[in-house]
Design a protein that fits this description.
Layout: H1 2-14, E1 21-22, E2 28-29, E3 36-39, E4 43-47, E5 65-67, E6 72-74, E7 79-81, E8 86-88, H2 93-123, H3 131-163, H4 168-179, H5 184-187, H6 196-204, H7 212-222, H8 225-231
Antiparallel strand pairs: 1-2, 3-4, 5-6, 7-8
Helix pairs in contact: 1-2, 2-3
């Protein structure tokens, strides 16, 4: 498990979060190719010119944001994480969530394994337990507990955002709009949700066929109704 934790950490830190690039013809695209739209009645596809960023002057398609730390635009940017020293975006959001899950499991196992020895060191110390050793056990145990308390809700928050196909930046923008007095502009929020399974597949990829029945059961039975309504298919 520590090897898996280190692997996901390095993959999140050094992988490209997703940078929009321009094709050779000069039109802008989120995937390095020409963005085209086809209408059967109107004729051949036409290039869709996307906007450029005012800071880095690069292509800035929809849902892309400029990171002031990395000094570049990131596709479907969630946030800039100082722990991994990288932006969390379209291409590394999955590995970031796996890193959080690995960290949660490792700290939980460490806390369980250290619980008996920590209780003994604090309340029932033996003669061979020195004071520095007892302090080290107590500090290590509580560090694991603090990580569990903080990372657990943080991972749950990201799981909810994945289910609703919404980034942290979009969630904060929506929350600020909801605090303002209601008007025509604040009510016209755009939702990117395409359904729970489509939203998860966009970030994590489609699950293997042999685990899909189990995942369907877990999502349908244990996701709260309010979250299900939030993440259901948009009209």
């Amino acid at each position: 498990m520590p090897a898996r934790l280190l692997y996901d950490l390095l993959r999140t830190s050094f992988s490209d979060p997703g940078r929009p690039v321009a094709d050779v013809s000069g039109s802008l695209s989120a995937a390095g190719q020409r963005s085209e739209s086809m209408d059967v009645e109107l004729g051949p596809p036409t290039a869709v010119i996307l906007r450029r960023c005012d800071r880095c002057h690069g292509p800035k398609p929809e849902r892309a944001h400029h990171c002031s730390v990395c000094r570049k635009c990131v596709l479907k940017m969630d946030h800039h994480c100082p722990v991994v020293n990288n932006c969390i975006g379209l291409k590394n959001h999955r590995s970031f969530c796996l890193f959080l899950f690995d960290l949660l499991v490792c700290c939980g196992l460490m806390a369980i394994l250290m619980f008996h020895l920590t209780v003994q060191a604090i309340f029932f110390p033996t003669n061979n337990m020195t004071v520095p050793f007892r302090l080290y056990l107590a500090a290590a145990f509580w560090v694991n507990i603090v990580i569990e308390i903080t990372i657990g809700p943080f991972l749950g928050f990201h799981f909810i955002r994945i289910l609703s196909n919404e980034t942290t930046l979009e969630y904060l923008a929506r929350s600020r709009k909801q605090r303002r007095p209601r008007n025509a502009e604040s009510d016209g929020r755009k939702s990117y949700s395409r359904g729970r399974w489509e939203n998860v597949a966009e970030t994590c990829g489609a699950p293997p066929f042999y685990v899909r029945p189990f995942l369907y059961f877990v999502v349908e039975k244990f996701i709260p109704a309010s979250l299900a309504r939030q993440a259901k298919r948009s009209a």
